[in-house]
Design a protein that fits this description.
The complex is a heterodimer.
Chain A (H helix, E strand, L loop, with lengths): L19 H17 L2 H20 L8 H10 L1 H9 L11 H30 L6 H29 L1 E8 L3 E3 L7 E4 L11 E8 L12 E8 L2 E9 L4 E3 L2 E17 L5 E6 L10 E12 L8 E10 L3 E4 L10 E4 L9 E9 L19 E3 L7 E4 L2 E8 L5 E21 L3 H38 L23
Chain B lengths: L5 H26 L2 H29 L7 H23 L5 H17 L14 H43 L5 E4 L2 E4 L6 H9 L5 H34 L7 H20 L7 H24 L10
Antiparallel strand pairs in B: 1-2
Helix pairs in contact in B: 1-2, 1-4, 2-3, 3-4, 3-5, 5-6, 5-7, 5-9, 7-8, 8-9
Classes of the chains: A alpha+beta, B mainly alpha.
The structure holds protoporphyrin IX containing FE.
Chain lengths: ~475, ~300
């Protein structure tokens, strides 16, 4: 540490000299430590961090960039990435790479030593009532500034470790509990005690008013929190205005269509009655998947009951394009996307029958349909159109050689809202660290020059009573008197 | 609204005055007439109210704080640069800094014009006073920090000029190679264009003074940048529920912050003072503009809607 004030000699260092070899090892270690904690070394650490972070802005990163761009990069530069991964710096995740953490830790260790020595020196000077020079106050500022980095790290790590972070989707009218099971994805911190808040939230309504250019001017979820069955809070949640209750915060992140679909089997039983979450980029056309594992009908000659599944495309504002096709029972219209408003909602349903592959243990996500053990209902996997409020009747072979009819209906089109939900008790502490950083930085940079200027003014003013011509904030490191830039 | 908005007309008037001022400052380098420099300065002072009026009318036309897209943001930074330049010239009598200051002001306004978007609504994510504070401090900090590199570049130039002239005095003008203060200077005999340049550059304030001014602008700009990055974190927490996510824009603002932190450390580290420190601010200048344009236009992230 390059410093103007040497720390007071520690008593241990002046104790009786130990045996020779240990001294040498010790002094080598001491030299290393001295070198390691110098400010020049800190500069190199900072440069190292800079380089890594720079890579992180230009190479697509796993958690912040589109996954397809990450894959593109990895397929384009496999060897480069391999090499860097071996060096502890996987290129597509530099911010969580071993090398990055090692550098950060090294910087923090050096900083810790620096903060401790300087803090001790400052305390000694305070206790011994050394004169309170401007320099002295500036050093407290610098000490506070550097120390607040530790508070920052503690706040970040503690907040993440004792909290959680997840994604939750709620459909219009639905009420869900803040419990583990309600999340689409959830990451709990290592020290999270496992207790979720348990209250319920209901999405009363969702609005995404469209502007003339077709883009939403805003998107708003009206939500009510129920605790113990009682409504305790109702609020419009939008980007920049989150819902916080009992330490858990809901942030509006995305939204989409959720067509309500009902399927009845040949026996007339309702075998599926759900809101299906659709995904899309621009909400004018979205895709989703219907799965009916318990269809409860067995085809003649089969032993296992059949299941049905469908790939769905939803056009909230379908534009019909007439098609000339001879075959009956297939699509006579094809559709193109219109606007994002629900002016003419139509579902295109591509139906499959067979085995959904759910019971054989392979994991299934709700957005993909594994058609490996299924066959298309229509030849060529054609789709049929199902406008809102309508029901389509379809037939299956029956045991008596006749047909058995089942129905698929689309009674309602809802919207779902997607929330980033998190608990992070570290946030107030992070903000505290911010405030301390600013206080320290401003004291370091301005208090000392300010006090020095006042002192100089006091020393020189009485006779003349005029202003000192030094511009404000002049560094006090050297004689900086005649720096007015008159040229 | 039909035709050219008033804000854009005012913008055009300001640019015209700035261009005239820049010509004045450039001519001032060889001509060395104080009155010329003062005339150029008056042109900047004349442009300034138009520039301000352009920003204010734009705010009325669009109905929001006028830093919501890259046109407005570039205009805002150029306004900080022009204002800072005016303050420096009026308080400290410095005129030559008008050359880089006007080049940057005009350059920023040219980019603003190329990326012009008519006044309009903001995307939902931008409705927040945290964002207003964040963007305003980032623009202010950018406009201030660039002056640290201007003075650093002048410092390097003055160093070189001093070394060149000193070498000329020692070498007696006879084709000798002499190491000067800022590097090696090759003597090509007296009176060449290089020595004329060195003579012009020696009209710059003493290198120590330039270095001090460079430091002063880091001292002013660095805390504002620090504050701006923190406000960005508060906004991120407020809007998305995370105060930091290594989004490209965040990452680059962190890079700029670290560069200037390195500068501050370099100043108090033996062997890193002055020349090396000066070079760091120049790297900082590049990083600020990479943050502003490269990240917005080529690297997509959560912040990239700021392009619209
Ligand atoms: C190993 C880590 C670090 C060490 C050993 C260290 C050490 C020091 C020392 C000794 C000073 C001189 C202070 C004084 O004269 O009172 C200083 C100043 C400073 N440091 Fe650090 N520092 C470290 C990390 C950082 C980091 C990460 C930052 C933030 C970006 C930072 C920002 C500053 C600033 C802004 C100053 C004030 C410069 C001035 O004197 O004007 N430091 N540091």
């Amino acid at each position: 540490m390059a410093t103007t004030i040497a720390p007071p000699p520690s008593p241990r260092r002046t104790a009786a000299p130990p045996p020779r070899r240990r001294t040498r090892a010790r002094s080598r270690l001491g030299r290393f430590w001295h070198e390691y904690t110098r400010m020049r070394t800190a500069i190199y650490f900072l440069i190292g961090i800079l380089m890594i972070v720079l890579i992180g802005t230009f190479v697509p990163q796993e958690f912040t960039s589109a996954s397809q761009r990450v894959t593109e990069f990895l397929t384009a530069h496999p060897n480069l990435n391999d090499l860097f991964t071996r060096l502890g710096l996987p290129l597509t995740s530099v911010f969580v790479s071993p090398l990055f953490y090692i550098l950060l830790a090294s910087l923090y260790i050096a900083l810790l030593s620096c903060v401790i020595t300087r803090g001790r020196a400052l305390i000694v000077r305070t206790v011994r009532r050394y004169p309170r020079t401007p320099q002295y106050w500036g050093e407290w500022g610098s000490w506070l500034f550097h120390t607040s980095f530790f508070l920052l790290v503690v706040a970040v790590v503690w907040g993440k470790a004792t909290g959680f972070d997840g994604i939750m989707t709620i459909t219009q009218g639905q009420r869900v509990a803040e419990t583990r099971a309600s999340y689409d994805t959830l990451q709990e911190g290592m020290l999270f005690d496992g207790h979720h808040a348990g209250y319920e939230v209901q999405l009363n309504s969702f609005r995404a008013p469209l502007q003339a250019n077709g883009m939403p001017s805003d998107f708003v979820s009206n939500m009510t929190v129920y605790s113990g069955g009682r409504a305790v809070l109702t609020k419009d949640v939008r980007v920049n205005d989150f819902l916080g209750y009992d330490g858990v915060d809901f942030y509006q992140q995305d939204y989409g269509w959720a067509p309500h679909m009902v399927v009845r089997n040949p026996a007339g039983e309702v075998v599926s009655d759900t809101d299906i979450q659709m995904i899309s980029d621009d909400k004018t056309a979205s895709t989703g998947v219907l799965k009916v594992p318990a269809f409860n009908y067995t085809l003649p000659g089969q032993t296992k009951p059949m299941q049905i599944g469908a790939k769905l495309v939803l056009y909230p504002d379908a534009q019909a394009l007439p098609q000339v096709t001879g075959a009956s029972n297939t699509l006579n219209f094809s559709y193109a996307a219109g606007s994002a408003a629900a002016n003419n909602p139509v579902l295109e349903v591509q139906l499959f029958i067979g085995d959904l592959g759910i019971d054989n243990g392979t994991s299934q996500d709700v957005f993909t349909l594994d058609t490996g053990a299924m066959s298309p209902y229509y030849l060529g996997a054609a789709a049929f159109a199902l406008p809102l409020h309508q029901t389509t009747t379809l037939s299956l072979p029956a045991a008596n050689g006749g047909t058995a009819d089942f129905t698929v209906s689309f009674p309602d089109l809802r919207q779902f809202s997607l929330f980033h939900v998190k608990k992070d008790n570290g946030v107030p502490l992070v903000y505290t660290a911010f405030v301390l950083t600013m206080v320290g930085l401003l004291s370091k940079l301005y208090l000392r020059p300010f006090l020095e200027r006042r002192r100089r003014a006091r020393a020189s003013a009485p006779a003349l009573g005029g202003r000192v011509s030094t511009p404000p904030g002049a560094p006090s490191a050297g004689p900086m008197r005649e720096e007015v830039l008159t040229r | 609204m039909n035709g050219t908005p008033l804000s854009l007309t005012l913008f055009g008037v300001a640019v015209a005055f700035y261009v005239a001022a820049l010509i004045g400052f450039i001519v001032y380098i060889p001509v060395r007439r104080r009155r010329l420099a003062d005339a150029a300065l008056s042109l900047v002072a004349l442009a300034w109210p138009f520039h301000l009026a352009s920003i204010l009318t734009r705010a009325f036309e669009s109905g929001h704080w006028p830093l919501g897209n890259i046109y407005e943001y570039s205009t805002g930074i150029s306004f900080v640069v022009a204002t800072t330049f005016l303050v420096i010239s009026l308080r400290a009598g410095q005129r030559l800094i008008g050359v880089p200051a006007m080049i940057l002001t005009i350059g920023l306004m040219a980019v603003a014009y190329m990326l012009y978007v008519p006044p309009g609504n903001l995307v939902p994510a931008l409705h927040s006073y945290w964002l207003t504070i964040h963007v305003t401090s980032m623009a202010t900090a950018s406009g201030l920090l660039v002056f640290s590199s201007f003075f650093a570049m002048f410092f390097l130039a003055r160093r070189w000029a001093d070394g060149y002239v000193l070498a000329g005095a020692i070498g007696g003008g006879g084709g000798t190679l002499v190491a000067g203060g800022g590097g090696a200077a090759v003597m090509t005999g007296g009176g060449g264009p290089l020595s004329s340049l060195a003579g012009s550059l020696q009209r710059l304030p003493a290198s120590k003074t330039l270095d001090a001014w460079s430091y002063r602008f880091v001292m002013i700009g660095f805390p504002v940048w620090t504050f701006g990055v923190m406000m960005g974190a508060v906004w991120g927490e407020h809007a998305w529920g995370r105060y930091w996510g290594w989004d490209p824009k965040e990452t680059f603002s962190f890079i700029v912050w670290v560069i200037f932190a390195i500068y501050l450390h370099a100043r108090v580290t033996y062997g890193w003072r002055e020349t090396r420190a000066a070079l760091i601010t120049v790297i900082g200048l590049v990083a600020i503009f990479a943050d502003l344009y490269a990240v917005n236009l080529w690297i997509a992230g959560l912040h990239s809607y700021a392009r619209a």
